[in-house]
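Exercise 7. Given the encoded structure of a 94-residue chain, write a plausible sequence.
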């Protein structure tokens, strides 16, 4: 007798297919979707912006960090100080 605690739910499998000729993607997706048992065929979205790589950590920067970098490049949220003393005063107030 099998008890509910020892049974595992069925999980769908995932198959990744790499295609060299991008003009064939539509036809291959259509052919795969015709196979019995296939429930979903999808293509991941390709980001137009490259993600920056941090060699120190070996990770790619997340969206929040990328947004902060872009805002800084545009001057959003950047604070300037007239003197070093003004900077020190601001840092001490944190």
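Solution.
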């Amino acid at each position: 007798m099998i008890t509910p605690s020892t049974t595992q739910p069925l999980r769908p499998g995932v198959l990744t297919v790499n295609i060299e000729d991008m003009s064939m993607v539509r036809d291959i997706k259509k052919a795969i979707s015709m196979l019995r048992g296939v429930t979903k065929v999808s293509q991941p979205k390709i980001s137009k912006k490259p993600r920056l790589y941090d060699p120190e950590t070996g990770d790619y920067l997340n969206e929040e960090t990328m947004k902060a970098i872009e805002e800084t490049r545009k001057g959003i949220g950047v604070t300037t100080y007239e003197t070093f003393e003004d900077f020190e005063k601001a840092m001490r107030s944190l």
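Remark. Residues 63-74 form the longest helix (12 residues). Students should compare their own answers with the one above.
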